[in-house]
Structure to design on (386 residues):
């Protein structure tokens, strides 16, 4: 049930007294992933990590009469008991499908007007009768000239059902951890894979998870849009299994074997999941470039377990006629040679957990540079209630 790497757990030899640590916790649909970083100088150092595989979670719930939340809590408790982290500062992500991230535009408004306008706009996007059931957050991320020369404010609206926010808060509270950050996983993925860099241009990140795929549009490293599609790696495994007539478990192995099922003319497999992702990605790109003709999408970056499917980079590059690459979330992290082996094995699957812990590390570095002590907390998402 619990997959554990002992050689990483004992990396406490890299610890220095007084250095802050950060625990990134990714509640994925296929697995629970946790990383612990220590900030040495201004460099985050990997000291601990663990994975709890959720592949048999549904069976265990049925056999043991657990609720889903009870089972997840048991997995988290078992994993943290194994890891014995040296910090209680938890940086946590909610799956992208539990929330909404969209860009809305307003004329120039003051904060009071903005609060009212955000509530009005939220009703268009949030399928609930009452906004009292919704946690909302918003941020002005840019301004541009409108078609008539007026100023248009670009506002990123983030929303999630309050019961979902409370669910993840409860997981953390049961372990006596302190929730230093709660955010939708989209932001953690971007933090792990990109730099906020003026002039870096528009990019698309496609995170292919087990259950869902998240298409993220960024501009200069800032999230502008996120689209979640209810299809992912499990559907690709099912397609491969049905097409070549092998068991699902064997199809999952073949996905990771290095065999190219996409670009071989005579034996190519048509994955409906990829076709849906391609169609929606084209829509996102077209919409962005229509509104911002000066900001063309220049690159597509892949993450998630199914980004390791052989041939997917070449396949998508030929479709979009853009450079396509697999992201490297570990590039911002200092690790030992032994850890490098693990990093190669996990590839992009730890992107969310890494991005979460990086959120804490970056906040600590910024506090130091501004001459302030770091108290271990950064504002949780959804604290700005409207």
């Amino acid at each position: 049930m619990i997959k554990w790497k002992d050689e990483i757990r004992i990396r406490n030899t890299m610890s220095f007294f007084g250095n802050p640590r950060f625990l990134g916790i990714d509640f994925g649909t296929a697995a629970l992933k946790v990383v612990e970083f220590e900030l040495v100088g201004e460099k985050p150092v990997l000291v601990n990590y663990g994975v709890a595989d959720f592949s048999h979670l549904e069976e265990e719930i049925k056999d043991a009469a657990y609720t889903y939340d009870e089972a997840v809590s048991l997995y988290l408790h078992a994993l943290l008991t194994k890891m014995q982290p040296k910090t209680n500062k938890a940086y946590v992500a909610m799956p992208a499908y539990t929330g909404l991230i969209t860009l809305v535009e307003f004329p120039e408004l003051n904060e009071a007007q903005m609060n009212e306008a955000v509530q009005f706009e939220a009703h268009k996007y949030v399928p609930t009768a009452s906004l009292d059931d919704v946690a909302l957050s918003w941020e002005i991320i840019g301004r541009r000239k409108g078609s008539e020369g007026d100023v248009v404010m670009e506002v990123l609206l983030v929303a999630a059902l309050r019961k979902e926010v409370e669910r993840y808060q409860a997981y953390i509270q049961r372990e006596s951890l302190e929730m230093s950050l709660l955010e939708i996983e989209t932001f953690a993925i971007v933090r792990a894979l990109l730099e906020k860099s003026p002039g870096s241009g528009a990019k698309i990140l496609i995170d292919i998870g087990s259950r869902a795929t998240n298409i993220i549009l960024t501009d200069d490293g800032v999230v502008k849009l996120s689209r979640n599609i209810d299809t992912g790696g499990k559907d690709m495994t099912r397609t491969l299994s049905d097409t070549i007539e092998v068991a699902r478990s064997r199809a999952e192995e073949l996905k990771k074997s290095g065999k190219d099922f996409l670009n071989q003319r005579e034996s190519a497999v048509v994955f409906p999941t990829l076709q849906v992702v391609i169609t929606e990605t084209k829509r996102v790109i077209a919409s962005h470039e229509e509104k911002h003709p000066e900001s063309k999408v220049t690159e597509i970056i892949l993450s998630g377990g199914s980004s390791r499917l052989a041939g997917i980079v070449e396949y998508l590059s030929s479709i979009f006629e853009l450079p396509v690459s697999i992201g490297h979330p570990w590039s911002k992290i200092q690790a030992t040679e032994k850890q490098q082996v693990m990093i190669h094995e996990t590839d992009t699957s730890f992107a969310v957990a890494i991005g979460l812990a990086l959120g804490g590390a970056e906040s600590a570095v910024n506090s130091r540079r501004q001459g302030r002590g770091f108290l271990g907390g950064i504002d949780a998402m959804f604290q700005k209630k409207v």
In short: The first helix runs from residue 6 to 9. Confidence is low (pLDDT under 50) at residues 1-15, 372-380. The two ends are 42 Å apart (CA to CA). The chain has two domains: 2-99+160-369, 100-158.
